[in-house]
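Lab notebook, bench 4. The sequencing result for the construct came back, and we need a structural model before the next group meeting so we can plan mutations. Quick request posted to the team channel:

Model the 3D structure of this chain.
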Amino acid sequence: MAKNSVKQRYKEGEDNYKIDIDSWVTPYGNLMTFLMIFFFLLYAYTYYLNDIDYERLMNRVQAQLANLDFKSSMELKKKEKETEFANKLREYMQKKGLTDAAQVSITAKKIRIVFSERAVLFASGSAELDQQAKNVLNDLAELISTLPQESRIIIEGHTDNVPIKTKEYANNMELSIARAISVLNYFTKEKNFSPDRFAVVGYGEFRPIVNNDTEENRAKNRRIEIIISRT
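Done. Here's the predicted structure in token form:
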């Protein structure tokens, strides 16, 4: 009888301390709920922040949440430099009153700067930079110097669809290429940037951002784009 009683009490103790294999579900569900709320709030920020501010926010979140090794830490620092470049450039455009003539945008792959004809980069039918253009490019060069040396820069020339034929340029394609080269020469010859960081391309009238159906739209299509690839 005594032995049976001991065995019964031992069995009852095992039952009292039995592990519930489903006990992880509740804290896991709570964690997923918190993460969903966090990323929902983060997504909601995109409606109130422009792309540059959002990029800066994501850099901070990544730095705080990620356990970064040395390589990842260096890559994050480069991303932060690129984001800060875009932010300073935006502030410069606002200070100089060029927000209608130039736009800055940033994605995970590139920083895109668009100078429309309102920036008065070139005279009609010409590829020679005017003085205002040189002033803008001079300040832009100072900001570019803060970027990592690995950053590659593409200069694109664009025109409207109005045909052109002059002694210098047979068509819009030639004019767009010449204008892109003028910007390149300013950076490499006047500001001493290494030419191997740059590439130039001219698209003529073949990549419009709006229809060429009004003079205002044609003015938007006459532009220089500077694309900075992100590291």
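The mean pLDDT is 81.
Will bring this to the meeting.
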